[in-house]
Amino acid sequence: MNKRILTAVLSFLLVICITHELNAQVLPLREQAKIIDEVIDDRLNNLLPLLMERTGIDMWVMITREYNEDPIVKTMLPATWISARRTTMLVFYYNPVTKEYTKSAVARYNVGSSIKAAWDMTKYPDQWDALMALVNKHQPKKIGINMSKSFGHADGLDHTEYEQFMQKLPAAYKTKVVSSEPLAVAWLETRTAREMQYYPQVVQISKAIIAEGFSSKVITPGITTSEDLVWWYRQKINSLGLSTWFHPSVEIQRNDQIEFDHLKAFSNKGYDPKNIIQQGDLLHVDFGITYLRLNSDIQEHAYVLKPEEKDAPEYLKNALTIGNRLQDILTNQFALNKSGNKILSDALAQAKKETINATIYTHPIGAHGHAAGPTIGMWDQQNGVPGSGDYPMYYNTAYSIELNAAVEIKEWKKTIRIMLEQDGYFDQTGFKYISGRQTKLHLVGNPSWQ
After folding, report:
1. Strand-pair partners of 414
2. How many whole angstroms from its chain centre is CA 141?
């Protein structure tokens, strides 16, 4: 049996042996569905009217078709709906004066337990006429529809449905149609107290999987390749009954003559599947899962011990400390109503004062991995991001603190990148990590750590 086949067999047996440890944390599908539906009802009944009042949009109309779902409609569908059905029309109306609040589905059936069917087919055989009847009934001042230049998440109304909607809409209301962007982004980015009760579980499960992969249970120096580890992570997600919103990646930095190109870490261009993990390597993983309709996005590092070592070299531990300091510099800039671009520029200015060679590309996280909300830099846009970077920060929002610090390692005669990403939450008390952050390198090969 050759080494690659042996590694594959051992990895498979490992999945069988240790899956039960995380299965204890991952709920059965039926229990997951119960939580998902409870959260949706809470958001629709308690959060949405507050956001409608805040943004001044008194009617929000969403129109979507089966298998061409509006991204926002998908966040409102019950757990047992895999997609929208036929043409699904949702109408939310909130009167800030009378506090009247209605949630209607212009459909043949209810959408979950909170959105009731509001289509009398005997009176309105045409679905569009039933929709217009609701508009005429409520006489809204602003009709929000999902169109947005800055946020793809809020741009879910397709061209065909837009044209039909505007053709059917009475002339008196055509000038009242506005982009729902402020409301749509607020809906997506705001995390409720109920969600924050279980978001730590999403992150903890993610971190547990990362730790398993970064161990001698999975990695055999001289045999295991970075691609082997990538697919171990992907298989592990599947084995636990979880899903992911992106394919994991694993990078290697080591004491050699090759300069690490961190840009390739974003695209995997030039990636060599034969890159075998060796003792003395600094490993990096970019990993995330989707669980209970929330997403994680985490990047951590591991060091592969040499036979005589019991800990990572001080110079690598110091490099991680610099990366942690950059995280602090960034999150110390978080403030209510401060734009993503302003947070970025202030953080980079402080990093420069502290002689940290920084690149920041932090983003909101929640219902999507790269979620709606203030963009705080992109790896190729360090002078700000027009549009999404101009959006202000609000309370009760979650972020993936993603960045890297370039650190010179004299012992290796080269510069390495400490690439970190940890999920956090911002509210009236300030910023905090949802389930801690990496301040210590994972160690591969030391029994006391495995």
Report:
1. 409
2. 34
Query: How many CB atoms sit inside 10 A of residue 278's CB?
Result: 15
How many domains would you assign to the chain?
2
Which of 154, 179, 204 is the endpoint of a domain?
179
What percentage of the chain's residues is helix, strand, coil (to nearest 5)?
40, 25, 40
- Rounded to 5°, the CA angle 289-295-301 comes to 55
Last residue of a domain, one of 127, 155, 179: 179
Q: How far apart are CA 439 and CA 450, in angstroms?
A: 17
Phi, psi angles (nearest 5°) of residue 260: -75, 125
Is residue 38 in some structural domain? no
φ and ψ of 33, to 5 deg = -60, -40
Helix (H) or strand (E) segment spanning residue 103: strand 101-105
Would you call 195 exposed, middle or buried from its count of C-beta atoms within 10 A (0-12, 13-18, 19+)? buried
Q: What's the token pair of residue 193?
A: 């107290």
Closest CA to 65 of 41, 88, 43: 88
Q: Of 136, 106, 138, 142, give the one whose Cα is nearest residue 124.
A: 106
CATH at residue 13: 3.90.230.10
Q: Quick one: 170 and 208 in the same domain?
A: no
CA 442, CA 303: separation in Å to the nearest integer?
6
Longest dimension (CA), the chain: 82
The SS3 assignment for 205 reads helix
What is the Cα gyration radius of the chain? 25
- Residue 63 structural domain: 58-179
Distance CA 368, CA 391 (A): 17
CATH number at residue 96: 3.40.350
- Buried/exposed code over 7-39 (b: 16+ C-beta within 10 A; e: otherwise): beeebeebbeebeeebeeebbeeeebeebbbeb
| Residue corresponding to tokens 């592990």 | 236
Asked if 393 and 334 count as a contact pair (C-beta separation under 8 A), the reply is yes
Residue 45 lies in a domain: no
Residue type, 137: K
pLDDT digits (tens, 9 = 90+) for 30-76: 999 999 999 999 999 999 999 999 999 999 999 999 888 999 999 99
Residue with tokens 């800030």: 96
Instruction: Judge contact between 322 and 405, C-beta under 8 A.
Output: yes
Q: Which 3 state secondary structure label does DSSP give 75?
A: coil
Q: Note the pLDDT tens digit of each residue in 150-174.
A: 999 999 999 999 999 999 999 999 9
Would the pTM count as exceeding 0.85?
A: yes
300 and 376 assigned to the same domain:
yes
